[in-house]
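Re: weekly structure request thread

Next one in the queue (377 aa):
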Amino acid sequence: MAGELADSSSRKKEALFANREEFARIVPLLRERGYAVIGPTIEQGAIVYAPIDSVEQLPIGWTDRQEAGMYRLERRADDAWFGYVVGPFSWKQYLFPPHTKMSESLLTAEGWEFRAVEDDAPMYAFLGVRACDLAALAIQDRVFMNGPYVDPVYEKRRRRALTIAVNCTQAAPTCFCASMGTGPHCRYGFDIAVTELSDGFLLEVGSERGEEIVSGLATSAATELQMAEAHQRRARAVAQITRKLDTHDIRNVLLSQLEHPRWQHVAERCLSCANCTMVCPTCFCCSVEEVADLAETRVERHRSWDSCFNWNFSYMNGGIVRQDIRARYRQWLTHKLASWIDQFGVSGCVGCGRCITWCPVGIDLTEEVAVIRGEAT
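Done, posted below.
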């Protein structure tokens, strides 16, 4: 239903099949219904999420090779449409924009007039959302919508967005979603879920909005053979996940080891560049700045993404609280994996592995946690 988030966990629908030619109609179909379609495409040597007008802009026949501190695009042996894992972007940039004008104040003859700024973002249709990013969206919902203070920009965009998820059929060495219970199979939070097969796509409907979109396509009931192929492809992704994070009692493990020597060891490698927080699909640190014009008759309040790795992020009462990289890395990791649980009831990590891939020096949080646990040296 329009204005409501997908509740795919409560819907049990027969799986459908659409061949490639028919599924290609989904982009113009969404555009006809007023959606701005955001999907995977290739830009500057990476697979990113950006506006697309047709499926021809998808990274057809391309895949990504990832390791700690390394990302490369490579040609596949086939023409798969979604044969990649995740790139440096996440969907949060369209719901929680990197830069937002929050309000403005104008000096009039009667004094200062304060105005709210109307968000003019279009209705988005997200095509290609992975299971880990579905979990990330659910976490951001808790942060921006489900608490005592609701972010109006996020809420409006989120409630209007349509989510078309794609089940992973391969995994990267940096993936550890299985440890976090967030993937690689899409099980909730989507309007439509897609599994790419050799000759088309298996479709699962997760909401009334998704059902309405799928009804515009010529589909057939999925055969047992197609269902078996979908299961086999999803199972391949599960088998490829080798990186693990032991989450047992992780909150207490980390918060009881705030003086562990490993914090200094990682600080000597960390550049405090904030890459990990910029690519993370759940990080929400931001700063607010007021900007006045030269005539001092107009003041705008802007919100921008920030990071706990930035040296002045912890500035208060005339000084910096976390003055060195050791303190800043410890803050990030303990918040993400420990105190986030106190705040929101869930971990702040979904196991997508972006922070490992896009760290310039290849710092691996799963390794850091293992050492602090005493399971590695």
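Residues 325-344 form the longest helix (20 residues). The radius of gyration is 22 Å.
Next request, please.
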